[in-house]
Amino acid sequence: PVTVSTNRPKVEVEEFSDAELSCRFHTETDPNPRIEWKKKAKEVSFVYFDGRFRGPFEGRATIDGATVTLHRVTQEDAGEYRCEISASLDTVSLGETNVTLNVLVPPQTPTCEVPASAVTGSAVQLRCRDQQSVPPATYSWFKDNKPISKPRHANATYLINSHTGILEFKAVTKEDSGRYSCLASNGVGSPKMCEAKPMTIEDVNMTVILGSVVVVFLLLVVCGCGGMLLHRNGLLTRRRLLQQQIEPQDFKHTQSFML
Ligand SMILES: *[C@@H]1O[C@H](CO)[C@@H](O)[C@H](O)[C@H]1NC(C)=O
Ligand SMILES: *[C@@H]1O[C@H](CO)[C@@H](O)[C@H](O)[C@H]1NC(C)=O
């Protein structure tokens, strides 16, 4: 019978490096068995068939015996591959082996969400995220460039979840003001840190005052816009009236011109 095996059923390589998908076979009598590689994603597609690499593998893969080397792999190449050997002259003519390819991606600079300001005593969440890294990154936080240690007892004023990247204050105090940054690492390549962002904790009074100013300003803007819209809607009907009052209009114009 034809026997097929692999040296490495699980292959892990870094992005943009080469991946060797090993396939060894031994035939009883058939000197030229047919070699095929398939990839199983949502559907099964050919990787190597009838002596050629197919589809996305054309021009970027080589074969030695039945062992395939994929060059400059990306996340797209990750998945399950199958090496199939058919030796029609053997008594058991079909053999296969599976190889799983995992493509590791180093962390990118994480995106850090740090509220610019918060009110003393309020609950605040800081978020850090790096979507692309494989395996998923773990996160650690820094305040003014010093690492924030994981809280040791249940009474701590904050929590850090190194898997979700969330730093959570139950009730912020003025001492929590500072510049916060976060480091993403996954053991592949070098860890990446986001730029530090400032967070200012203010007492209620100041915030309420600033808040009211903003609200009043927004109200003014909204009323102003609303007024303009009403004015514009009324314009068509008013135009006739204006045409009849053309003289005082002209007068106004010249007057403002002189001013
Ligand atoms: C390879 O994987 C397929 C399913 O994708 C399975 O049917 C087959 O038995 C596996 N072969 C080996 C040798 O593990
Ligand atoms: C935690 O807080 C409770 C009540 O607020 C207190 O009794 C307890 O001693 C505190 N524990 C620690 C470890 O600080």
TrEMBL record:
One CC-aspect GO term: protein complex involved in cell adhesion
Ranges that cross the membrane: 208-230
Protein's GO biological process: leukocyte cell-cell adhesion
Keyword Hydrolase: no
UniProt keyword list: Membrane, Transmembrane, Transmembrane helix
Ig-like domain ranges (all copies): 1-93, 107-200
Signal peptide (UniProt feature, chain positions): none
UniProt keyword Transmembrane, yes or no: yes
This protein's name: Junctional adhesion molecule 2a
